[in-house]
Amino acid sequence: MRNKLKLYVIIFLCAVLITLWGGANLASAEEEQETKPITIDLNTPRVQPNEDDGEEDLLEEKYHEILSELTISEEAKLVAENIKNMITTIKDLTLDITIVQIKGERSDVLVLTGMFGVEHRLARLEFLEPSALRGQIVVIDQDLLEVRIFQPVTNQIAVRELEDMSKEALSALNVAQDITSYFDFTQYEIAVLETKEYNGVKEYSLEVRTEESEALHIRVTDDTWFPTQIIVFEDGVQAGEMTFNNVTFSPGLEREDFQNLPKVKEVRL
Amino acid sequence: MPDGRRTSSLILCVILLGLLASPAMAFEAEDLPLVFGTHGWQGGLSLSQERIKHLGFLGYEITGVGGYFLQDLFSEHVSSWFAGHKEVFVGNVGYTLEFFVGNTERPLFSIFTNSVDPHIGAYGEVKRVYGDYGHGLSGMAQLFMNAMGEIEYCISPYVQFTRQGVWRISASLGSSFGLGLSYLESGETLQFDITLVNDEFSFYVLLSVPEQPIKFGAGWTEQRMQAFLRYTF
Fold first, then answer.
1. SS3 sequence, B126-183?
2. Cα A182 to Cα B204: distance, rounded to the nearest angstrom
3. How far apart are CA A163 and CA A146, in angstroms?
4. What is the pLDDT of residues B18-48, one digit of tens each?
């Protein structure tokens, strides 16, 4: 009996240790909540959300003051205006996106298909490459303010608040923001670097200087005025590029086309 | 009160106090399992607490504690199993690490109380999925707190595919040898597990009633049959 008692004592001591271990992890997990890693940087220019309205007005005033002093060619201005006007006419859009992020000697390639519905306020991303992300489907619903992510590894749909997502990896891309605003380059310092013509279609290479050290080179043709490639330069060195293929404008997508996910269990995170 | 029952009650109290004293003061899930198993009818309480931390855009980490204790309805025997675990899912890769203590086997699905000697152990798993296909490796080791101080271990490589749910074919290598097939329906309402380990056949099935806090489980091996009803509140 004494021997048995010893065994039981060992068991409950271990149980308490396990509990404390779990608790410590819970506590540390909570502490770490504030530091969230960014894994995807789409490097597209964006309008920064502002916290203080007064401060925003002052900054905006200064910004436009500086912009007005810049010499922007009429041609560059026209190209940027055409891109902006084209984007604002889009109701919905499907396209293939290839993002290359250059990290020193190597580069990471991300391939995904995208569906964007301006009227439906829905977006859907399906990851094709790399294999570590293949099969993941992300549906962003701006009306419900939530994101549904189908993950093959769990065979579940994780539902997250849109607000949480914006704080995470998509911090470079505010998912609550109107997608068309990402293609408005008119507020930046712009210049036409190169113009080519193929079969009567003009292709422009536009330089957009978003910050002192960052510039975007945007390729766009005058038949669609939709950017086909965006190359990101940081301190004069190519940091990455984003290519758009198989672009279909306003294909008449329904809400169901965006929301069609595998019939699996949903877990609210 | 007989010595055995007093000891069992003491263990339960300490485990409960330990769980309640942890920083996670509220339990996410509590169930009342009613089990018919190795020791006849058993009733008890199951508790679990999990915390989720987001890891970037497509990942999250679950840290939790949980377990159960069951008292035989017509004897003083107590079955219990408690564990702390961490699961990480990033993209198509998943990891699990778990440390446990108990006097039943590591529960399959949720509760199947196959009594064994008191032990402590660890379980780990890594898996990778490519769309509908995937593979992984799990391993478990446990040290028995008996006079022999035996150590048991098991390594299970597996492959899986998704067809109306996840089908997994695994091998069991180590202290025991065998093969297994398991299925988890997409909505997670039905799951079953068939194994042939050390020439012993076993079959377990778990049915969750959709939108209801009730689960039914049944298990059959060559030596015994088990069943449970689990009510979550």
1. EEEEECCEEEEEEEEEEEECCCCCCEEEEEEEEEEEECCEEEEEEEEEECCCEEEEEE
2. 54
3. 8
4. 444 444 444 566 778 888 877 788 888 888 8
Going along chain B, which residue ranges are E strands? 29-37, 40-54, 59-72, 78-90, 93-104, 115-130, 133-144, 151-162, 165-174, 178-185, 190-197, 200-208, 214-221, 225-232
CA distance B51 to chain A (A): 6
Phi and psi (nearest 5°) for A218? -115, 125
Inspect the interface and report whether the beta carbons of A11 and B103 lie closer than 8 Å. Answer: yes
Can you state the angle between helices B3-21 and A2-32, rounded to 10 degrees?
10
pLDDT digits (tens, 9 = 90+) for B180-193: 999 999 888 899 99
Q: Domain map of chain B by residue range?
A: 3-232
Nearest CA in chain A to B210: A265
Residue B130: pLDDT band with limits 50, 70, 90 = confident
Tokens, residue A3: 């021997």
- Tokens standing for residue A86: 């084209």
Mean of per-residue pLDDT scores for chain A? 74
Contacts of A126 (CB under 8 A, 6+ apart): A112, A113, A114, A136, A137, A138
Query: Of the spans A79-88, A258-267, B176-185, which averages the highest pLDDT?
Result: B176-185
Strands A156-161 and A265-268: parallel
Q: What is the C-alpha to C-alpha distance for residues A91 and A80, in angstroms, rounded to an integer?
A: 20
Locate tokens 């957009």: which residue? Answer: A208
Shortest CA distance from A168: residue in chain B: B56
Q: Is B14's CB within 8 Å of A12's CB?
A: yes
Angstrom distance (rounded) from CA B94 to CA B59 = 9
User: Which residues contact residue A12 at a Cβ distance below 8 angstroms, ignoring those fewer than 6 apart?
Assistant: B10, B11, B14, B15, B18
Residue A197 has pLDDT above 80, yes or no: yes
Q: Within its chain, how far is the Cα of A1 from the centroid?
A: 65
Q: Strand, coil or helix: what is B13? A: helix
Distance from the Cα of B148 to chain A's closest Cα (Å) equals: 13
Q: What is the pLDDT of residues A80-116, one digit of tens each?
A: 888 888 888 888 889 999 999 888 888 899 999 999 8
Q: What is the CATH number of domain B3-232?
A: 2.40.160
> How many Å apart are CA A101 and CA A41, to the nearest integer?
8
Please report, as a single letter, which amino acid is at residue B57.
F
Q: What does the alpha-carbon distance between residue B79 and residue A5 come to, in Å, rounded to a whole number?
A: 15
How far does CA A101 lie from the centroid of its chain? 13
